[in-house]
What we know:
heterodimer; A: mainly alpha; MetI-like fold; 2 domains; 15 helices; B: D-Maltodextrin-Binding Protein, domain 2; 11-stranded mixed sheet; 4-stranded antiparallel sheet; 18 helices
Amino acid sequence: MQGIATLAFTLAGLLLVTFGLSRLSPVDPAVQILGDHASQSAYAEMRRTLGLNDPWPVQFERYVVRLAHGDLGVSLSTGERVSDELRRVFPATMELASLSLVLSTLVGLPLGILAAGRPRGVLDGVVRVVSLLGNSLPIYWLGLLALYVFYAHWHWVAGPGRLDDAYEYTIDMRSGSVLLDSWRSGVQGAFTNAVAHLILPVVLLAAYAVGNVTRLSRAALLNEGGKEYVMLARAKGAGEARVLLGHMLPNAAAVIVTVVALTYANLLEGAVLIETVFAWPGLGRYLTTALFAADTPAVLGGTLLIGVCFVLINGLTDVLVKLVDPRTR
Amino acid sequence: MLVVAQSLDDIVSLDPAEGFELSSLQALNNVYQRLVQPNADDSQDLMPTLASRWAPGPMPHSLVFELKADAVFASGHPVRPEDVIFSLRRAVKMNRAPVFILNELGWRADNIDASVTKVDAHRVEVTWPGNVGAAFALSILTAPVASILDATLVQAHETNGDSGNAWLKTHSAGSGPFKIRRYIAHEALVLDANPSSPGDAPLLSTLIIKNVADAASRRLLVEVGDADMARDLGPDQLAALEGKPDLKTVNYPSATIHYLMFNTANRDNPVLKNPKLWEAARWLIDYEGIAERLLKGEFTVHQAFLAAGFPGALDSTPYHLDIPKARAILAGAGLDQGVHITLSVFNQPPYGDIAQSLQSTFAQAGIQLDILPSLAGEVYSKVRERSEEAVWLYWVPDYFDANSTAGAFARNPDDGTKTLAWRAGWEIPELSRATTAAAQELDPAARQRDYLALQAAVQESSPYVIALQARATVVMRKVVHGYRQGLDAEMVYYDRAAK
Lengths: 329, 499
């Protein structure tokens, strides 16, 4: 019950701020839609259609009432229902984010454990440098470089887009997940093509996320290192591996789960730059395009979706933390 | 199948009565046809397209069009006078972005019904209340907003009295060489050939226009061969592709002109309305440097408001960078010290580079330009409110007639019409009358002379410094042939393209 109240309160605040900011924008949505040369009567009519002449509390109320009926409105820049558009772009981002999260956890967690095992050792130094690099290299530049080397030069992977054109418009993208839909279509070669298109963006996003997972799981483990139960375990003659995996890891698990969950929430927000470089039709690019087009319903819809994701992931994290760490129950 | 990589993020609608963005216009030109259209190989030559011929009507401002006897839409429905009447009435009554082009003929929602009428089963009469000649009216009818739609098909998809607008945003009902198979906003536009299109059937079976927002990614796609054509590559990308054996770079002249405008309606900075500032500014732009070196061939130097290639364009370029001369002009007017001007520009390439070049050359004559980069929508909003000081803008003619541009740059009537001259706060009663007279002139030679004189007047003294004309560069695989592109924004022709 308390969770639902938090959810409602957070979302209401989010909506109010986003709506307020969109009203402060100096861009006139009517000009944005009709272009610069339309007639005065066309602008007036567009402003009336959009309800822009009403005071903004009225506009906000109208939006919230519609939202309560499950209506996110119609995108100003495409004329499509925002809910339909989100249903199309969100699975694309979710697929990218989920695969990247799995990869970054599979790589980042063992790296963090290894680094924490020998703090300030050679491996620790290498891991810290690599994770910092993954975090600080501009991902846009890295994306282009990777495309240039692995796609344009060596032809190891497929290029921008989710599928080659031969498959792209023949496969029914019902679920929105390119792996699932290409597999289900039964079209020969479609699934491997989807994988070939996914490799680069997934690896790059994971490289970005792996830095976070490694650094923070290392820090969480080191934080446990000086505690009495660790000294006791060592005094009882437990080996380093047993101390690290059997004693410290379960105690640091709550922090690690939280880190992984927050990383996922960040990835779900949509990696604007990766989606742009790889022509990936995801949520990040959708929101950015909507922002540039002063497309308020699309921006509000997208922001709301991200808000819901954050709140849900937070809720889920709480449950998971309670499961892995009895002290929090 | 031909794959084109470009940005499609601008598309608002693919309904010809509504779509007015660069990518929509280019698509509409290949999906719909008009009664008359410019020849794809020579934009100045008008060709009968859905009409087989036309003749002056019984009234002074009227034309009677005879429709091609065997013309059919992609749906198989014949092209009838009813379709012409439906399409033109619909476009005027919907009153969306491009309707102002049809308004030039005096057409409004309350008079359009009487202005387009059926003569018999093959002929339709078009009359217009505006005081303009038949040549001008024909130019207006070549614009995509005057596309002829399949009335039967559109009416079948009408919902809540929207004239089929919701359906037409993503579907097509035309007779052009292609028809829309699928449009996914911000992703792709897939067109299939329409073999029954009046004129020749297209050579391609499928045309895929992919939205690739990033120019560097577009370059890689065309380099590898996953795209056959790529548009809007920057100078860096073009340089990287130079000399690649499988690629060719083709430059098409474009009617887009770039200019600096001083807002003389801005009361906070009175220097902006001093004609001596306008004169000095003409000698303070490094035209050659920007066109040849800074932006490496994206532009040519052009100093008149009608783009080269338009009938009646003035091609003289009397101004060049001459700082001592500009200093002398400014000193003579007492403007040699402490002049500060804020220059608004779009916050995307190549405008930052252009603004910096201006900042450096203006500074040498003692004028401090403060550059204010903003979102395009924000810049336009400011210009419409006349709150900026100076702005660097570009102009694309809305239809293929000199009046589209002259009516903006050299006309500021006091009837509330907010033309570009109004936005510059430029009071020009005489020039406005001359511009209106030029639009009404019936003799083509006299009309061209009128426009030459108008351009010379604006070139000599006005709050605009017209500097550059853009070139559209398309990179394509060498195997692609037959693609054509004209001067105006919508003049993109895929019908003879093949590989």
